[in-house]
Fold these 2 entries.
Entry 1:
Amino acid sequence: MSPFQTFIGKVQAEILTPIITLLTLGAFLIFLWGIVEFIAGATNEEKRAAGQQHMIWGIIGLVIIFGANAIVSLLKATVGAT
């Protein structure tokens, strides 16, 4: 294995994986908070709208995070890093 492949593998394992995990957790918590707001404000249209926006932003965040993770995996597969 070349030094570049080793470097890519270590960067992914030591830096990108923990960052992606934390961002995923944050986006999921925003989504859950939106659900709580939506249910708690069932009688108030403004609170329901705010909860719905949080759910949408949480889903958008998750899609972006999983897309970035897919790009990193594709990069690793392209250069042959393990």
Entry 2:
Amino acid sequence: MDEHRVTGTAKTMGGKVEEGFGRATGDTKTQIQGVMDQAQGTAEKFYGQAKDAASDAAEGARKTASSFEDMVRHTIENKPYTAVAIALGIGWLFGRTHRPL
């Protein structure tokens, strides 16, 4: 879990306490500051969540690339003729798509 999520949650809770204290004492300035702290805390918490999501997506992409590499390596090592045939086919298709008409 990202540190921004923790600090954002703490700031939000502190803002709620500050708002409640301002409301109880009738201090509008403290009450408004509490609401502002809550908004900052919520924004920081969402930023932390976004960082976590991006990190998870990057890790998933790395795992997918690694499994694809393992599959290609396995095919080349265990079925070399199939690998050569696939490479020739891809090369032929690539050549056909870039040939002038």
